[in-house]
Amino acid sequence: MKSNDQSFIRDFSLEYLLDFKEAMNLNLGKAQLQLDGQMYGFMESSKDSLIISLKSKIDYLKYWNDEDVYFLLNTNLNCNIKNHLIDGYAGDINADLEFNSNRIYASGNIYDVKSKFTLLNDSLTFYARGKYEDNILSEIDAKMFFADPEIKFDIKKLNFNYNQFNISNRNELLLAYSKENIYFKNILLYAADGTLNINGTFGSTGDHELVVSIDSLSGKKLIEDILGEFGQNNFDADINLKGLVTGNFSDPKFSINASAKNIIYGDSNFGSLLSVFDYKNNSLNTDIRFVNSIDNYNLPAMSIKGFIPIALTTTKDSLDNSNKNIDLTIESDEFDLGTLKNIMPYVQFQKGKLETDIYITGTISKPVMIGYFSINDAKFNFIKNNLDYDFNTKVWIDDEDITIESITLQNVFGTKQGGTLKGEGFVKLDEFKLDSTFIKVNGDLKVLDKISKSSSPFVYGDVALRTRGDIVYSAKRGNSYINMPIAVTVADIILPLSKSAYSSNSGFIYEYANNSKEADIIINALDSLIETTNKKDSVENKNGEVSRLSYTLDIKLETEAEVVVVLSKELDQNLLAVLDGDFFLESINGKTRSGGELKLLEGSSLSFIKTFAAHGNVRFDKIDNPIINITSTYKDYYLPPNSSAGTAEQEVAVKIKLKGPLSQLNQNFIKDENNIGVYMGRQAIQEDKKDPTKNATDAMYFLIIGKFPGDDNNQNDKNLVASTTTALAGSLIGEVLNQYFDNYVTGFQLRQTSTDTKFNLIGKVWKIKYEIGGSTDVLQDLSRANVKMEYPITERLKLRLERKESENQTSSINNPLFFEGGFKYNFEF
Length: 829
Fold this sequence. Notes:
Blueprint: E1 12-28, E2 31-46, E3 49-64, E4 69-84, E5 94-106, E6 109-120, E7 123-132, E8 136-147, E9 150-162, E10 165-168, E11 173-178, E12 181-191, E13 194-203, E14 208-218, H1 219-227, E15 235-247, E16 252-265, E17 268-280, E18 283-291, E19 302-309, H2 316-321, E20 327-336, E21 347-362, E22 367-382, E23 387-398, E24 401-411, E25 420-430, E26 433-448, E27 460-467, E28 471-476, E29 479-496, H3 518-544, E30 548-557, E31 561-568, E32 573-588, E33 591-600, E34 605-608, E35 610-619, E36 627-638, E37 650-661, H4 665-671, E38 676-680, H5 682-687, H6 696-705, H7 715-741, E39 747-752, E40 757-765, E41 768-775, E42 786-792, E43 797-805, E44 817-825
């Protein structure tokens, strides 16, 4: 054997080992490289062959600079290569290469990479599998054959997953490359209950023919697999495509017929989308039609027709052609907006027509639009307040000037205290980027109604607004401002407070021992480096373009506003506030402030066992959590026991003070004993001097029976007080249990009888409603409790089982228990 310089090559053998211990660090200018792992193998020359072997185990490799981060974790690379050394001998190369990695990061994470390549004579077999981030998984198993001048490509397995969307083959896929031509033979893929088929040839020269088809793709499965469930609304469509590609890479031509028929979203049927695309001479002819049915193809609800110059090649003729003008028309005469019923958030269109006539010309780099669109006789329901509105608008487009000729939003006919808002404005673009905007609106509108309770249970009632002048929105590039001077003309609101008074946390903090392995520490450090780099990029992007919305909301009450605040449904405690005043909320350049005050007028009251006259104010230091300062007073006359004849009755008041932030109002009332007190005598009432000898119990007695504890030993009075307080306690206990156990416990009742105290625990487990109760003696032996269960067999037929005491016996822990069963059927006439 000889080398090229005719010198003899001796046999040799070389083994090598590279061990990068304790994380080798290299500074490469502004970049750094860190490596921990091991590489070893051998090189051997024997007779006419050279063998090279490499095995590596990289625990981690990390490269980073100020802009980029790259790393490998738990990576193995094994390689074996064998070839002849005879001078002038064109022998085959045999090689095996295997690459596996737990994680690769290069602007994104690739996990669980497994691959193997085997080169044997004139064939290459390879397998690869990996997962990108958390939603893309791909796998391929294929073989290539090299037979000059042709390369054949045989794919045994192709599997691609995005979320739940899958594209895969069931039979072998055959491709070939020869003399700059690609041959597609039997390319059949399955996806979303449909198929993708490609057959034919395409290349750099000559005239070719390639047929592409998509058959019966399920829109429902496609959307659900890619995007997930659409809540309660289902999307579906039958998607098909037939395409013919001719020409070559220098002069491609294609004709495509695509359709999405019977497009359904929830209760809305959009009809069908039919499209035809023809491309030749670097121009794309387009014909897209939305039709209500196949029969009215020539009368579409909306159409997009014309041609677009698109250069798919880089030849001079193509580039010249790309500067030609677009000729595209968008037309719609009677596009039914009722088909959009469920597609827009918060808005459900019930009817309306979209009319459009827009002509697009200019070039791809600088298109020009001229025309208009209008929405006529539209009616929609706004989900957040359950109110119906009529809507009309007309917008003119003249290149980069968009004029909003009119906007009309009004409550539908028959809405009590309804009104109309009207507006106009303009939008200016600069190279098709938003430059400036000005919109003004004025009028009146009802925004809340009693029927709003079904969609807004936290605040409902009647609210109507009127603008004081114009509501103006203006914007210039990244900065915008909206001024909303509003007068409240109708306000009759019910505001149930949240259940925060009874919310609770356990207060336990659990700490776990840190048993992280060294590998976990490395992974955390790498993730931290990625996060730091991403934050830096994010900050730089934010600094490059900052947009800010400033606003002023100025509200004045032009009428007495009546607001019912349900402080505690369980205690039957409501505040009726008759209000007058104003408040504002403003945010300028990121600095927010609020202010104003609403005063309680005559007629305001608090209901809690009795009716209290209320006075005070509400301050809006924080608009979302105003400060309450309200004192409610109940007055009555009291004659002390054992008073001598002719003694005048004494005026007595019970005052309840509600103070503090609105969000804490109900819990403050329960927790702070000073919020309820007794005031003896007219002077003490006027000077707000609480009687120190009386507490909340005395106040409750006086509210219930007009007396104080110890005045006499009237058993009927005691029973009345006991019955009232146990009922209140039972409501509170039921609320607390519901907080902890959700609907498993829906209520707890306490009631006082002449002989004992009764309780009932009410709830629901799965479909079974239950009720457990009895006297408080049962708590000592729960096996003696009354139990009632009800199971719905159908919507109208229910099965009921009950164990209880006899209704003819005096309640006793020793009474026998009886079982009853029956069916309950609901008849409707």
